[in-house]
Every structure is written in C-alpha cells, then in structure tokens.
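Homework-ish question, so no full write-ups if that breaks the rules, but can someone show me the predicted structure for this set?
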Amino acid sequence: MSEDLKKIHSYLPKLVDQLQEGRVDRREFLRTSTLLGLSATAAYGFAGITQKGLVAPARAQSNATVRISMRVGTLENPATYSWVYDSNVARQVCDYLTRTDSENITHPILLENWEASDDLKTWTLNLKQGVKWSNGDEFVADHAIWNLKRWADPAVGSSVLGLIKGYLMNDEGTELWDPKAIEQVDDYTIRLNCRSAQLAVPEHLFHYPALILHPSENGVFGVGSIGTGAYSMTEYEVGRKVVLKRREGYWGKPAAIETIEFIDNGDDAATEVAALSSGQVHGLYEGSTQQYAALQKMEHVQIHQVGTAQTGVARMQPQHKPWGDARVRKAMRLALDTEKLLQVAHLGLGLPGEHHHVCEVHPEYADVGFMKQDIEGAKALLAEAGHPDGFDTEIFCKGDPEWEPIAVQAMAQMWQQIGVRVKISVLPSTQYWEIWNKPTAPFAFTTWTHRPLGVMALGLAYRTGVPWNESFYSNPEFDALLTKAEGILDVDERRKVMVELENVMLEDGPACIPLWRAWFTAMDKRLKGYEAHPTSYFFCENWSFEEA
Amino acid sequence: MTAFFAKRAGYLLLTMVVVSFAIFTIMEFTPGQVARKVLGPFATQLQVDMLTEEMGLNRPVVVRYLEWAGNVLQGDLGRSTLYKQPVANVLWDRLGNTAILAAIAFAIIVPASIILGVAAGMREASLLDRTISIGGIVTTSIPEFASGVFLVSIFVIWLGWLPGTSTLNTGGGWPLASQLVLPVAVMVLYDLGYVVRMVRASMVEVMTRPYIRTAILKGLSFRDVILKHALRNAMIAPFTVILLQINYLVTGVVVVEAVFAYPGFGRLILEAGLSQDVAVIEAATLVAVFITVMAQIIGDFGYMLLNPRIRFS
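A: Not a homework solution, just the prediction itself:
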C-alpha cells in the first residue's frame, strides 16, 4: 500500500501515518492528499468517511425554471472578471480544470488527476478524456494551454496572474519565467514547470476567472458561447437578466433543471427581499445583514450559511506617515475589540477578526494568541512613536455592502479611544475600486474573499510587489517565510512557519481585520442540491427543483 | 405663431448644446477613469492607458465633444461602455418602458387631481378641503423610497397580493400588469398631492371672483356654477403644472425604478452614471432635456390657447 501511495507522491505515506496518529485531522488529510493527486475516493476511504462528492445524486430532469436574484454585469471577458457573481453565470457554461468544494477539498473536473513532484515544482496535469465542447470538439491540452498562457499574459489583465506570478512568471511578472514553464506532454497531458515550490496549484486553477474557454472565441464570452458546461447562455442583457438553458450532449451528468435565470434586481436590499417574498425569484446570490431578519421570517426559504475567511482589511500603506512606523500600525490593531466589531457590523455571524489574515478555517492556522483590545498598550505605543496626542487621518471605504461602512464606523470609534481621529470617506464601489491599490489611498478598507489556504491570502495581499498588495507592504523576512511556508506540505511543519508569519503580521503587518464573515444566502426550500460555498460559487448542474 | 415656435425651438437647441457640453465637462472632472471601469479594478495601468488611447479619451474634451456632436447629428448616439452595444439599442427600449409607467400614472394623476382639487377648492376650509389638503401634503412629503417600501410591506409581504419587483419578467406567475401596480402607485402618491394643491389653489381663487358671485346670485345651482363657470377658468393655471409633470414622470423616476428594479429610463441613467458611461449619460440627458423643454413649449402653447389675454409673441 505504502509503495502504491509513494508512486502518486512520496509524501502520501507520511500523511497517512499522520492521519492514523491523529496528527492531522480528516479534513486536512482529505485536502492535502487530494492536492497531491490521490483520488477523492481513495482519500475518503483512508479517512474512513463517506465521500460527499461534487455531484448531486441523480434526479429526474424537469422543465423547471429557477430564478436567482443577482447582479448581471459585463460578462464578455471571463479572464478579467472582478466579481464572483459574474463567474456564476459563465461557470454554468464553462468549466474549471479543478473544483474546490465547500469543505476546501479540491477535485479534478476537466482534469482526470494531477501529479506533483516531491519538491512541488513540477505539476503534471492529466486531462479527462472524452470531454466535449458544445460545438462537438474534444477538449485537449492545446485548449487548456491556450487558457493558461492567456492568464499569464499581463496584457490580458487577469487576476489569475497574481496567483501564478510567484512560481510561473519571471521576477517582473511580465512573461513566463521559462519558455517551457507550461509544457504540453501530449494531447491530454500538461506539465507545469515551476520556478519555486507551490502546493496550491490545483486550488489556483479554481480561481473564479480561471474558466476554460474555447480558443476559437479568443476569450470573448456571450450568448451561444462554446463551453464544456451543462448549460448554454441563450439570453443576456446587462443590468436585466441572463437566461441559461440545459445543454443536450453535456459530457457529465445532465442537469436536472431546464432553465436558470439570473435576474438583476439592483443593489437595494429591500428589493431582493420583496422579489423573494413574492416568489419572483427562488433565491439570492448573497444575503446581507440588512436582509437577515426578514429572511428568517420567510417560511418558504431556507437560509444557507457557511463559515469563511471572507473579511475586510483596514490596510495602512507604510510609505505614508504615520503608517511607516510599525508601532503605530500595531497600536491601531490593539485599539480594536474584534468581538464587538463582529456583533456590531455583522450580527455576530462569523468569527472575531485576527489581524494576521489567517483564519481558523485555514488548515495551517496557528494559534498565536488572540490579540485583545488594549487601549493603554496602544496609547503607550503611539506615545513611543511620537504621537502622544494621537493624530488625524482619513480612511476610504465603500458604501456597500452595508456591513463595511458599519465596521469602519465602529473601528473609528475605537481608534478615537487612543486619540486617533479618523475621518471616514465613503465612496461608491466603482470609485473605491479605482483607488483600492493606489498610493493615493494611504488608509483604506478593502474586502477580501475566502481563500482555502492561509498562505494564498498572504501571498496575494502582502508579498512584495504583487499586483494586489494594496498596502505596498514590503518585508523581506515576511516574503522569505511565506515562500518557505508555500513549499511545505506537512501541515504541522507549515504551521510552525505560520507562527512566525502570523507574529510578523501582528507586530509589523499593515492590516487591521475586524471580523471573519459567515457567508449566507436564502433559497426556496424546493430548490434541492444547493450548497453554500465559501467563495459564493454556484454549481447549477447539481440543483433540482421539486414542484409543489 | 411661427415666431413663437421658432424662438422656442431655438431655446431648445441652445439648452441641449449647453447641457450636453456641461455633461461632457463634468464627466471630465469626475473621479476615476472610464477605461478602468471598463476593464475592472484588477487591470494593469498599462491596459488602462492602452484602452484610454484606443477610445480616444486622452484627447481634449472639446475635440471629443465636437466629434460626439457630429455623430449625434448623423443619428449615431455612440456606443455604451457598460452595455457593450450602440446606445440607441438600450435607450429607446428603456425609455419605452418608462413611458408605459408614465402614461398610466399620468392617466390617473390628471383626472384624480382635478376631481380632488376642485372638490377641495370649491368649499375652502371645509372638512373635505382640509382632508384632501392634508392628505396631499402627507403623500407628497413621503419620499418615494419610503412609500415604496411601505407599500411593499403591506401588499407584497403582508397580504401577498402583488409582486415585489417589476422587472417585466413574467416568471413567478405575476402578469406584467400586476408588476406595474406598485411603481405606478408610488408615482401617483408622490405626484398627486402637489397637483391637487395647485388645482385647489386655482379653484379657491376662481371661487372668489365676481363672476362666480354673480352666477350664484342670479340663482344658478351650485353644480352649474362649478361646472359651467368655475371649472374651465380654474384649469388655466394648473394646465402648465400638469404638463410639467410629464417631465418628472419620464425623467425623474430614478428612485421608483431602483426600488422596484424596473428596467426603465431612470435606472438606465443611474447605472450609466455609476459606471461613467458617457455615451449613455449624454444621450439620456439629451432626451431628458428634449422632454422637459417640449413639455414647457406645449404648456405655454396650451396656456395661450386657454387664456385669450395672452398672445403669441
């Protein structure tokens, strides 16, 4: 058995031992073993639990139409999607190479499986054979490589680049670090030759813009686009609606629901509640705290909730005064009572924030002690930094969703207790996203979505020079520790590095984190097969609808 | 009369030119780059610069305005950066939707305001007058978003009689007509009170005139006094006010359309504004100005026809 496991990856026998000795829990075993290429069936077998699977049990096809309230934005370029809800449309038409489920277990979708080298620098992606595009073409390595190279092209502007920059791109992030970084082995095999170890490659392939498009359409998505998914898009109007129809000839298990409609009801929370109440829609893309009480009272809907690492970060740019002083940054953290912030801003739904941006739901989370509010300690640090009377500053934030300005307002009141007088500038979302990663916003509050690994969030947000490093934080010690952590498979070992990383963030980091959000939505009870996903993804081919 | 219309048409054109240039200039100073909004927050600066150049947005505002104006004169309203299609494809559809709402609301507001206004004004300070006046003030004072939520709470969530949104999708079993009820109700409630009070004020004034006193003294029934002598004269002043409501009903219903997710002209302007979609904003502004000025011209024209003391000049 051990030899068989070794053939898949040399670390697997050790992982199985760790599971049996109770040193890793089942969830972490499942997550890591599947990442290393062990099939989900085998992994679940080792863990001694029934496989939950990605695909809902077979259900009879129906002519049902399910309508979901969700913003309908510009969908034409999936590689540059900025919002998960955009991908929720295209995801029904096109697939990813992999899929991470609601328990953070990553599964192959357009891949049959993958193999990682012992040093985690070489990843062999074996494509599933027999997958057909909606135009009848067979899905082959050329198609996947075309997409991979497109994401890596800075001229395209895909956020996937931020994820792969560290291991597939050159230092400047302008091109692949080696012409053979993405290598075609045969029609159904691709090899990624990375310049540094990376354990989250399969998870990166599930980043929301990483949809596999047919090369013949040159990256443009629209009505009638070619896809490998269970649905075809038949109608689309920005700001109004999208209609998806079940596709005949889908390579997987056919979808049960014939028509999915995404209806754009705008940003008003009350409008969505009204639409759900009157049965005009069967569910919401995402619930808001404004809607929570009303949703609880609706007998015909079920609230689906999932713990996530979604959060908001009040980040300070150290190149600006007074944020250049680490004592000031730490004082700002010490001023916050994140348990209260969770109650005030998010109805207590979630977990109190921890300022190192690694959440309890992350497998490598290390308990370095909860940073509690310490007003006197914060004042002392400010005095030491030359601000005995505090200072005036300005924070930028968005006006929606509503919990964000509330969190900022509550934090500002707490900062006032240490003499930091914060002027809050609430901007419309569109204006905020102009400045979120610009030096013109020295102090700002930005939301960050869930990532299955703590190192993923840290790598995207705080590594020197990456596009999403909105604070322009640069700490060689942090970068070195992060690179080290990203190359460690053993969670126990990685956690030891995480202790150091988290402490760097607490002592020196640029972030104040008020809370971890529990994500929730509401769906009609007749809608079956829906499962809340921490990244707000929809997989409509798993849904079915029971008519009354 | 020709001079009257020529002068008004000149004003209309001048207003359209001034407003459209003002919009261009204001958009120039609005924070954020159009290309950034098109490409999304994660686009690189290089991409933003390239698209800015490709769209010609790095040229002086006057050059871009003249080019746009030239295209408009040839019937080309430009291409929407938000909707990724010619503006005309979106604009007329949305305007048509709003026109339906406006027409229904107008058809209710005009007779209702005349009846209520006359009823209130013919017996000033009566219980009926006070009831109608206070009711009108209350409904007009409540913002549209508040009355919208209030009506939804009653008729959608509590009673379940009406649909909560008006997306013009028939899914959910709600016919299109039922989807128009609440938005129209909000528009009527908001606008009716104002027009009622204008009609009432005019009626009160007319009822104090000597010819009304004469009519009463010569023994005409009160009904005949109102219908034959007071009503027509009382309608002259509110006529213009009533016509100007078309402007609000078509171009001022942003809040109503947002509350009910109605795919109309107001929501189009809102979304375009948030996305800095200059082509849509400009086209919508031209339409709004045209409707406003035309309503004014028709109002003036009608006023002169109704009131012989005023002559075309």
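Now go work out the reasoning yourself. Hint: Residues 307-517 of chain A form a domain with the Dipeptide-binding Protein; domain 3 fold (CATH 3.10.105.10).
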